[in-house]
Amino acid sequence: MTGKIVCIDLGGTKALCGLAFQGAVENVKRYPVPSYAAKNEMTSYIIDLIDKIITDDCTGIAIGIPGVVDSDSGYVFEVTNIPNWRNINLAGILRTRFQVPVMVHNDVNCFAYGEYKYGAHFDKGLPCQTLLGVCLGTGLGAGVIISGKLHEGRHGLAGEFGSAPYLKKTLEDYCSGQFFRNLDTDGANEYELALSGNQGALNLFEQLGNHLGVAIAHMQLAYDPDVIVLGGSVSNAYHLFEAAMHARFAQFEQCEQLKICISSLPDAALVGACELFYQRYITELKSYQSA
């Protein structure tokens, strides 16, 4: 039997940490992220997060990173919204420091796999075979599940739709929290204004939905999934941009029957990180515990 796994879901502005075991997460804490810290300071921040939560019965560490990662080695190449933190052997550093197996993965892949394993997308009691987990947060990205397996692509770039050119910038600039920052405003504030009926704020969410409809159509045409699950902080405002989003992607004939749902799985990325860790290290853990 394996012990608990320290799981971290690192975002551009916040980090969630918890202890996970077989689909359940406990002791979840939220911390602000020093997004513009120097490289060594950011690594120290990750170590401090683990120190805060790790216990004697923990047998591993799993971290979701919002950037380009080699999941086989745990090497972090770049993190767009944490610009100084790149080209670092994170898994190696953490293995040396904590003396347990470490898995480093893309954060949206963790989210998608958590949704695939435990989310509310089941059809007649069976999980769908092809799922996209799309995170609308500080940035935009998708995790891809094909035939029940996580698909990363040769270079770990599968699902990185946020970097695709769109209008004058990229899809991420129009389909995530970056959309509001580019307008020198804050998505959370605009959300509160929209709830109070402010027409300007409502118009912004309608624009967001229109852009997101284009992004969703691209995802549908690329992967033709059974379902797309939306998560991330921006998805909390789904009711404000849902109509505009559906109207936009419905203009693509192939997307008319697309099934979209909002994540209802608490801490999906933490759960998914734990499951991906088990998938990779279960044999090593058995050897580790019998030693």
From TrEMBL:
SUPFAM superfamilies assigned to the protein according to its UniProt record, in alphabetical order: Actin-like ATPase domain
Gene3D superfamilies in the cross-refs: 3.30.420.40
Cited CDD domains: ASKHA_ATPase_ROK
InterPro entries: ATPase_NBD, ROK
Family: Belongs to the ROK (NagC/XylR) family.
Name of the protein in question: ROK family transcriptional regulator
Organism: Pseudoalteromonas luteoviolacea NCIMB 1942
